[in-house]
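Q: Predict the assembly, please.
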Amino acid sequence: MSLFEYQFMQNAILTAFLGGVACGSIGVFVVLMHMPFIGVCMSHAAFAGALLGLWLGFNPLIGAFVFSLLAAAIVGPLADRGELSPETSVGVIFSLMLGLAFLFMGLMPGTKSGALELLWGSILTNTRGDVILLAIVAVLVVGLIVVFYKEIQATIFHRGIALSVGIPATAILYGILFLTGATITATLRSIGGILIFSLILNPAAAAYQLTYSMRKMFLLAAGFGVLSGWMGLLFSYLFNIPSGATIVVTSSVIFLLAAVFSPKRRVKGWRTNALAEASHD
Amino acid sequence: MGETVIDIRNAVVSYREDVALRGVSLKVKEGEFVGIIGPNGAGKTTLLTVVNGLGKLLSGRVKVLGHQLGSGTGHSLRKRVGYVAQVQNIDPRMPMNVREVAMIGRYGLLGLLGRSGRHDWELVDEMLALVGMSHLARRPIGHLSGGEQQRVAIARCLAQEPEIFLLDEPTASLDWKAQADILELVRNIHDARNLTTLFVTHDLSCLPTACDRVVLMKEGRIWGEGTPVELLTDENLGQLYDMPVSEVKKRRTESILV
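A: Predicted assembly structure:
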C-alpha cells in the first residue's frame, strides 16, 4: 500500500495545501498593512481559547475562534483610534493571552497531551472534519479576496484614501481581521498555536521580496504557503520529526532565500531595474 | 459663480476632549476657489472632513451638493468629492504601480462588485497625462518622489470626476518648485473642469494669485474671510499667528512664513 493511500496522509496533504493557501493569502494583509503583531496576538489568543475549550469541555475550535476575534476586537479599535500605540496594546493583549493559555493548561485535570497538540500542532492526526473546515475557510478567504479585490487593494494601499473615495474601508479592515481569525482557528490543530503565525507571515514576507504586483504577491504567497506545507510534511515524514515545526522552519528557509535573491534589495538602482518597469498586470 | 454647493451651519466637531470646530458656518458657491489658512490645530483639516462626510458632527448642519450630511450618507457623497491629503508615507516596496493607484479614484464610483473596464483605464491614463505623470505610469508608486506622488494623488482625485475638490496642504513638505508647480496645476484644473475647490495651505505667497476668497481659521473658529488682498494684511496675520507685526513683515519679505 503506497503512502498516499493512507487516509491520514491524504488528510495531511490536503491540510497542507488548504492551510498554505489560506495562511499565505492572509499573510499578504499582515505584511502590507504592517500588522504582524496583531496576527501574533490573534494566534496566541486562539491558542488560549482552544485550551479553555479543552478545560471546560466544549469544542476547542469554537474557543479558538471566539478568542482570536476578541483579541482582534480589542486590539483593532485601540490601534485604529490611536489611543495606544499598536505595539503597546498588542503587547498587553499578547502577554495576557499567553498567561491565560498557561493558566488554563495548569487548571486542566489529567493528561495534557491534547493541550500540547494544540501547542505544537499535529497535521498527521487530522480528521476529515478538520479538512472540511479548513476547505470552507480557504474557499471563503480566496473567494472574498477575488470578489472584493479592488476594495481590499485600496484599503491596503491607504485606509484614509480608500474611505475618501467612498469605499467602506473600515468594514473591509474588520472583514480581514475576521478572516485572519477564521484561518488561524482552522489551521490551529495542524500547525499549532505557537507556530501558526509563522506560516501566515513567512510565505507572504517572501512574496513581498519578489514582486511589485499585488496580484502576483497573493499568488506567490499562497504558492509558498503550499510549498512550505508539502515540503515540511515530507521532511517530517522522512526524518520522523514534528510536522508543525518542520513546516514553519521550511517557510522560514523560503523567506530567507527570497530575501537573499530579492530584486527589491537593489531598489536604489530602480531606474534601470526591469522588474520595476514590468510591475503592471 | 453658481449656486451654493457647500453650506455649513454652526458645525461643532470634537475629538475626545479636544473641540476641533466650535460653531463654524461657511457657504461656498459652485466654481469658487477658496483658500483656508491658519495655525496648526485651527481646525482646517476638520473643516474639510466635514465636507466629505468623514468628520462626525456633534451639532450643526452640513449640506453638500444638495445632500444633508447625516449618518450613513457619507459613502455616496464621497464619490463626488475628491480629497488630496498631505504627502503620505508610502512603503517603497508597496506592490502597486502608479496607474493602479490612480485607479483607486474610480473604485467608489464602480461600486462594490464593479470591475474597472477600458473606459476607466482610459480615463486614468488621461488624468495621469494631465498631471504629467504618463511616463511613470508603470513604476511602483513607492519609487516616486513626494512631488510626483502628489501629482498622482491629484490624478487619482480627478479620475473620480469630482464636483468638489478638497486639498489638505498638498504641497507641505515639498520644495518650493514642486509647490509652485502643483499649485499652478491645481488652479488650471479647477478652471478647466469648473470645480469647486477648498485648498488648505500654509503657503501665503501663493494665495493672492490662486484664490477667489480666503478663510482664516484659528482655534476652531472662522476668524475672518474675504478676498486675499483685503484679508492678508500683516496686521491680520500677526493676530492670526500670535506674532508681532514687525516679525510678520520681516518674514513675509523673506517669504519664510510657511
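The domain at 3-262 of chain A is CATH 1.10.3470.10 (ABC transporter involved in vitamin B12 uptake, BtuC). DSSP finds 13 helices and no strands in chain A.
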